[in-house]
Amino acid sequence: ERQDFRRRAAALGAESKIHFLDVPFEKLLERVDERNRQVSEDVTYIPLPMMSKYLQCFQAPDKEELALNAG
Q: Are 5 and 18 in contact (CB under 8 A)?
Protein backbone atom coordinates (compact mmCIF):
# COMPACT_ATOMS: atom_id res chain seq x y z
CA GLU A 1 0.00 0.00 0.00
CA ARG A 2 2.78 2.44 0.79
CA GLN A 3 4.13 2.17 -2.75
CA ASP A 4 0.68 3.10 -4.07
CA PHE A 5 0.56 6.17 -1.84
CA ARG A 6 4.06 7.19 -2.98
CA ARG A 7 2.94 6.94 -6.61
CA ARG A 8 -0.21 8.95 -5.93
CA ALA A 9 1.77 11.66 -4.15
CA ALA A 10 4.29 11.82 -7.00
CA ALA A 11 1.45 12.11 -9.54
CA LEU A 12 0.29 15.19 -7.65
CA GLY A 13 3.80 16.61 -7.53
CA ALA A 14 4.13 15.98 -3.80
CA GLU A 15 6.97 14.39 -1.88
CA SER A 16 6.41 11.51 0.47
CA LYS A 17 8.52 10.26 3.35
CA ILE A 18 8.25 7.36 5.74
CA HIS A 19 8.86 8.08 9.41
CA PHE A 20 9.21 4.80 11.26
CA LEU A 21 10.03 4.20 14.91
CA ASP A 22 10.78 0.58 15.74
CA VAL A 23 9.00 0.17 19.07
CA PRO A 24 8.36 -3.19 20.76
CA PHE A 25 4.80 -4.51 20.52
CA GLU A 26 4.21 -4.33 24.28
CA LYS A 27 5.40 -0.72 24.45
CA LEU A 28 3.00 0.25 21.65
CA LEU A 29 0.11 -1.33 23.54
CA GLU A 30 1.14 0.52 26.72
CA ARG A 31 1.20 3.82 24.84
CA VAL A 32 -2.19 3.21 23.24
CA ASP A 33 -3.65 2.27 26.63
CA GLU A 34 -2.23 5.44 28.18
CA ARG A 35 -3.56 7.53 25.29
CA ASN A 36 -7.00 5.91 25.59
CA ARG A 37 -7.20 7.15 29.18
CA GLN A 38 -6.91 10.77 28.02
CA VAL A 39 -10.30 12.36 27.67
CA SER A 40 -10.17 14.80 24.79
CA GLU A 41 -11.85 15.54 21.49
CA ASP A 42 -8.39 15.19 19.91
CA VAL A 43 -7.90 11.59 21.06
CA THR A 44 -9.48 8.71 19.18
CA TYR A 45 -10.10 5.71 21.40
CA ILE A 46 -8.51 2.54 20.00
CA PRO A 47 -9.53 -0.70 21.75
CA LEU A 48 -6.44 -2.73 22.64
CA PRO A 49 -7.69 -5.90 20.87
CA MET A 50 -8.15 -3.83 17.70
CA MET A 51 -4.66 -2.36 18.02
CA SER A 52 -3.25 -5.85 18.51
CA LYS A 53 -4.96 -6.93 15.30
CA TYR A 54 -3.56 -3.90 13.42
CA LEU A 55 -0.05 -4.66 14.67
CA GLN A 56 -0.26 -8.25 13.44
CA CYS A 57 -0.97 -6.96 9.91
CA PHE A 58 1.62 -4.17 9.92
CA GLN A 59 4.73 -4.66 7.80
CA ALA A 60 7.68 -2.57 8.89
CA PRO A 61 9.53 -0.83 6.06
CA ASP A 62 12.78 -2.51 5.06
CA LYS A 63 16.11 -0.78 4.40
CA GLU A 64 15.36 -0.42 0.69
CA GLU A 65 12.03 1.27 1.35
CA LEU A 66 13.53 3.62 3.92
CA ALA A 67 16.32 4.46 1.44
CA LEU A 68 13.64 5.94 -0.84
CA ASN A 69 13.45 8.84 1.63
CA ALA A 70 16.90 9.94 0.53
CA GLY A 71 16.07 10.19 -3.13
A: no
The predicted-structure confidence for 1-30, as pLDDT tens digits, reads as follows 889 999 999 999 998 899 999 999 999 999
Candidates 27, 17, 34; CA nearest to 69 is 17
The residues, any chain, with a CB within 8 Å of residue 9's CB and separated by 6 or more, are 15, 16
Which pLDDT does position 39 carry in this prediction? 78
CA distance 48 to 55: 10
Tell me how far apart the alpha carbons of residues 31 and 1 are, in angstroms, rounded to a whole number: 25
pTM of the model: 0.66
